[in-house]
Design goal:
alpha/beta, Immunoglobulin-like, Rossmann fold, 12 helices, 16 strands
Length: 449
């Protein structure tokens, strides 16, 4: 029996198991409800008789699927082959593309676009069957001239659209080591492109190599296109990064993810912290596109809470996540709510801190502060940038000591060191790229590899 026949028979067997049992007969993993929703507040007990603000954390826990259960992938790799990529960079990029190809199989679609002054489709979108021919095409890629980045992404999207069927996970991986200098080149231009693509269900992940690429442009494209973003100082790390990215793409357990938070009467949503979201009266809405198995995504919402009497309990908010389950092709929902009790006992209030929510809050606020520090440094205000980072570091350190959290303490130490470096020498290209990337990864809860 050939591999395609084997795959089809396994798919039929899994479909029977899913229909009869709703789960995998070998592992007991259920194909229903792949996402669980949790809602927490930063203090479980609130001070009585006063208006106040609090932070609620809405967490989406994506279950880890068995290795054999995954959705087919429609992948387009878009490689920069401009002159600056000549040598080891391009060779490692080609190696990474081949490694990504080898993780796919006949269920998947693969295409590869290269760009310099011109854009060229090296591998048109096709089933991953004739891997020898595809690999030979990749190995023969040679360096060229300038950097038509916008055109490269647009052409990668055109290859994706050839198979824009809902059964696939659609992903573009863009790699660049330089400044876009042919065609649209402003971060806003790429941001609009990413936003347009995500409306079609096409996510864009960006990989910046070296110290000369435009990190603002790359992170704007990833943020608008709901993908991951990576800063690779050495091209030696490219195969590892591509491997990590494919690990995410091959483990998607939810698509078209919409999160809605409804605040109770009297409770007013004030802000969505870090993420893009929409507040409409008592309702907060967020769109997260896709969730990866085994990973946790969350949103933080600041709310204003009315005064409550001692001993009273108030339901603060409820949350509902709606998503498409890629295994059942059905829309599913999961929900939860959170309440708090009011007390006049200040010691009881102080002891009710939720360390998990507080940690997420401090790390996210710090990430937002890092982006502000970049803006200050760009304006030539390096002392102000350093002061902002030191202030963030002090808050992180205090929280780390209070909650005995090593990650908060380590982050505080790193921020303090960055502040000293920036105050003394200004913000270097490497430091700027590192801060921009880490800030993005924290706000989006991207796993760092």
């Amino acid at each position: 029996m050939n591999p395609v026949q084997t795959t089809r028979r396994m798919g039929l067997k899994m479909a029977i198991l899913l229909t009869v049992f709703g789960m995998d007969g070998l592992t007991g993993w259920s194909y229903d409800r792949t996402v669980k929703c949790r809602v927490e507040i930063d203090r479980n007990i609130l001070p009585a008789d006063e208006n106040q603000r609090a932070v609620i954390k809405i967490t989406l826990d994506a279950l880890t699927p068995p290795k054999h259960a995954r959705q087919p992938v429609n992948l387009a790799i878009v490689l920069d082959r401009s002159g600056s990529m000549r040598g080891e960079k391009l060779e490692k990029a080609k190696e990474a593309a081949i490694q990504a190809l080898r993780r796919l199989d006949a269920r998947d679609i693969f295409s590869l676009v290269v760009y310099d002054t011109q854009v060229e489709t090296i591998v048109p979108a096709q089933s991953v069957e004739n891997t020898e021919w595809i690999e030979s095409r990749i190995r023969h890629i040679a360096a060229g001239n300038s950097t038509a980045l916008f055109g490269g992404v647009s052409q990668g999207a055109a290859e994706i659209r050839k198979n824009l069927d809902r059964k696939y996970v659609h992903r573009i991986i863009l790699l660049s080591d330089g400044i876009a200098n042919v065609g649209p080149s402003a971060p806003e231009d790429l941001g609009r492109l990413g936003a347009a693509l995500i409306k079609e269900g096409i996510a864009v992940t960006t990989v910046g190599v070296g110290t000369d690429y435009n990190e603002d442009l790359m992170t704007r494209l990833s943020r608008s296109g709901d993908g991951n973003t990576y800063f690779v100082e050495s091209s030696v790390d490219l195969p590892r990064i591509f491997n990590a990215e494919l690990g995410d793409v091959l483990s998607i357990v939810a698509q078209q993810v919409y999160l809605t938070i409804e605040c109770s009467d009297g409770v007013r949503p004030v802000a969505v912290i870090g993420r893009d979201g929409r507040i409409r009266g008592q309702t907060v809405e967020l769109y997260l596109n896709q969730l990866y198995g085994g990973q946790e995504k969350y949103a933080l919402v600041e709310v204003e809470i009315p005064a409550g009497k001692h001993g009273a309990t108030l339901t603060i908010a409820s949350a509902r996540v709606t998503y498409e389950n890629p295994f059942t092709r059905k829309k599913e929902t999961s929900g939860a709510e959170v309440s708090s009790r009011f007390s006049k006992d200040q010691r009881e209030v102080d002891n009710s801190d939720n360390a998990t929510v507080k940690k997420a809050y401090y790390l996210t606020i710090n990430a937002v502060g890092e982006e502000r520090a970049i803006m200050l440094a760009d304006e030539g205000k390096k002392e102000d940038a350093a002061d902002l980072l030191r202030s963030s570091a002090a808050e992180l350190k205090a929280a780390g000591i209070k909650y005995d959290d090593r990650e908060l303490k380590d982050k505080a130490q790193a921020m303090d060191a960055s502040a000293g470096e920036i105050e003394k020498e200004g913000m270097s290209s490497v430091k700027r790229k590192t801060i921009r990337t880490e800030s993005y990864q924290q706000i989006n809860q991207q796993v760092s590899y």
